[in-house]
């Protein structure tokens, strides 16, 4: 696959799963979560780890959690597991939140993750998240 070729998404909507994902124009992924139920978390973990498995370049992802009011402990544990995968180092991840509770949970995920995980920024405004994501990826190396 060439540097400019966009990798296939390999995702289809599943009834009862509380997130959607689309490719960003830069080749990264844009996730939108409507819930963080156990079925959603398990589906997301499998999807995310499969994409990490064949991660071959620096990537920008956006997670929109503005519809989420709180993050359960199980979600924190699953996110820490995914962010501790060595391939996560290839990801710059902006997370949109609308509450201090969700922001605090994300800060806990960052603190508990193994060194070298995704570069994570937490934002309440989409334009600020996009500006942060759009910084040159070379700064991640």
Account of the protein in words:
With 141 residues, this protein is of the alpha/beta class. The protein has four helices and five strands, in the order E-E-H-E-H-E-H-E-H. 34% of the residues lie in helices and 19% in strands. It has a five-stranded mixed sheet, sandwiched between helices. Helix 1 (38-53) packs parallel to helix 2 (73-83) and helix 2 crosses helix 3. The longest helix is centred in the first third of the chain and has 16 residues, at 38-53. The two termini are 21 Å apart. The model has no long low-confidence stretch (mean pLDDT 89).
Any chance you could write out the topology, listing elements then pairs?
Elements: E1 19-23, E2 29-33, H1 38-53, E3 59-64, H2 73-83, E4 91-96, H3 100-112, E5 119-123, H4 126-133
Parallel strand pairs: 2-3, 3-4, 4-5
Antiparallel strand pairs: 1-2
Helix pairs in contact: 1-2, 2-3
Q: Can you give the mean pLDDT? A: 89
What composes the largest sheet?
Answer: 5 strands, mixed
Domain tally? 1
Low-confidence spans: none
| Strands, total number | 5
Oligomer: single chain
CATH superfamily: STAS domain
CATH architecture: 2-Layer Sandwich
Helical content (DSSP H or I, runs of 4+): 25-40%
Q: Which structural class do the helices and strands define? A: alpha/beta
């Amino acid at each position: 696959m060439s540097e400019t070729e966009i990798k296939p998404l390999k995702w289809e909507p599943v009834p009862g799963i509380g997130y959607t994902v689309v490719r960003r124009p830069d080749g990264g992924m844009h996730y939108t979560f409507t819930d963080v139920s156990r079925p959603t978390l398990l589906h997301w973990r499998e999807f995310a780890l499969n994409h990490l498995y064949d991660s071959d370049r620096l990537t920008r992802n956006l997670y929109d959690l503005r519809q989420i009011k709180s993050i359960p402990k199980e979600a924190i544990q699953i996110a820490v597991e995914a962010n501790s995968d060595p391939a996560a180092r290839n990801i710059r991840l902006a997370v949109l939140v609308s509450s201090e509770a969700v922001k605090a949970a994300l800060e806990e995920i960052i603190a508990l993750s193994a060194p070298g995980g995704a570069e994570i920024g937490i934002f309440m405004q989409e334009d600020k998240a996009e500006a942060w994501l759009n910084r040159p990826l070379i700064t991640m190396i």
